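Folded chain entry —
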Amino acid sequence: MGNGFVQAMLRHGLQVQVWNRTASRAKDLEQYGAKAFENILDAVHGADAIHICVKDDAAVDEVLAKAEKGFQKGTVIIDHSTTTVEGAIERTKKWKEKGFPYQHAPVLMGPQNALDSTGMMLVSGDQDLIKRLEPELSKMTGKLVNMGDKAGKAAAMKLTSNLFLVGLNGAVADTIAFGNSLGISTQELIRHFSQWNPAHSVVSRMKKMTDSSLPDPSWTLEMARKDAGLFLLEAKNQNIHLSVIPGIASVMDKKIKEGHSKEDWSVIGRMN
């Protein structure tokens, strides 16, 4: 991700100094016009803004601690890492007190998006700081989404979005394994899902799950659980493992026990 960001920044005419814990990765970026440093203090020296993209909270804190002595007065820290909400909030407070504004700006994009300045970037917190950074950040993404003045809100949405992607990946894996076991090839599944695209139903499904008026069921929970039982039976017969469906079936059983069997199956998404 950082590699793509650097190349895009260079195309936009910025001077970019780079450092990586694996020195060769930084060195590779010199072919595009970046200047690589083996010492992190040299890399951040004289920089108006520091962009960081690493694995997690611990890595962010480790790298910033090493770099701090090289910051000039007022250096802005822009962190694109996926972190905890608490970590983003704590760093925002900590670095502001040290005199270095910290902006968490996680992204919903892959390496190619970073290279092409497409995808989505999320920000929240100090609105004056965001307004000041907006011209620079907007060049890095197809869509910059300001989630308001609450520090950590961008981190929360990033984690929530990734949770959906992980769950979706598990459901897709289950679908491929299940279909293949019943004689449906992956290419047939791709053609089928190209024609029947359930992605369009995600927003309406979320609305239905949170609709307190309990609309008339389009598919009752007891009927959906019957089908889930068929999925599990076929999986057992074909000797395949399903990752997602057993957990959903368990939630369905709990809701049925609570008396929701005749309600719309979206009731499984309600917390009470």
About this structure: The radius of gyration is 24 Å. The longest helix spans residues 153-181. The CA atoms of residues 173 and 243 lie 8 Å apart.
